[in-house]
Specification:
- By secondary structure, the chain is mainly α.
- Helices cover 72% and strands 0% of the residues.
- The longest helix has 46 residues, at 14-59.
- It is flat.
């Protein structure tokens, strides 16, 4: 047996090319399916939560509904970075929220999507005050009007919150970009 005369034989492993093909074609498709499935599940959960919330608010009594809407308005104000003291009256809390919304623009002019918010905050607060402190002065179904106004205000406050977060993120990205690429010796990434 002559071992020296044999040349080394190079063979290609068929399994390794098959794995590479699956990795290159199958994995990104699975990630997209998982991502889109998660996005769809989140959307469905949001719709179900909104429907449940609507039913919950409609079943409350007029006074309890007004208190719940006011509590939610204060919670949204906290999400927007406003601290409302526990002893504040509804008028003081609403005034603080209006000041926050008005002060959101550097020039003092209120963006179009927020212009209606100021009136909604005032209208909801007025109705909450009448329901809570003077229920005998109610005319008609104030609760339905509060809920209708709350639906509109809630989405405007969410949009305001989202816009502030996006602006904050872009501001941070701009600082990082400036510190990284403009080589400003006064500012480094660690200072950001």
């Amino acid at each position: 047996v002559n071992d020296q005369a044999q040349a080394p034989v190079v063979t290609q492993n068929p399994e390794s090319s098959k794995e590479e093909l699956e990795t290159n074609t199958g994995e990104p498709n699975r990630l997209w399916v998982i991502f889109l499935g998660g996005l769809a599940a989140t959307g469905i959960a949001g719709i179900l939560w909104t429907a449940y919330d609507e039913i919950y608010l409609r079943r409350l009594t007029e006074t309890a509904g007004a208190v719940e809407v006011f509590r939610r308005m204060k919670r949204y104000a906290k999400f927007l970075g406003l601290y409302i003291e526990h002893g504040n009256t509804p008028l003081e809390s609403a005034q603080a929220l209006v000041c926050l919304l008005q002060g959101s623009s550097p020039k003092g002019n209120i963006p179009g999507y927020l212009q209606g918010s100021l009136g909604l905050v005032a209208g909801i607060t007025d109705k909450i005050m009448r329901i809570s402190y003077s229920p005998h002065s109610l005319k008609g179904n104030e609760k339905a009007l509060i809920l209708q106004q709350w639906k509109v205000l809630r989405w405007q406050l969410r949009l305001f919150w989202l816009k502030r977060r996006v602006n904050s993120l872009f501001g941070f990205a701009r600082k990082v970009f400036d510190a990284t690429f403009r080589h400003n010796p006064e500012e480094s990434i660690l200072e950001i």
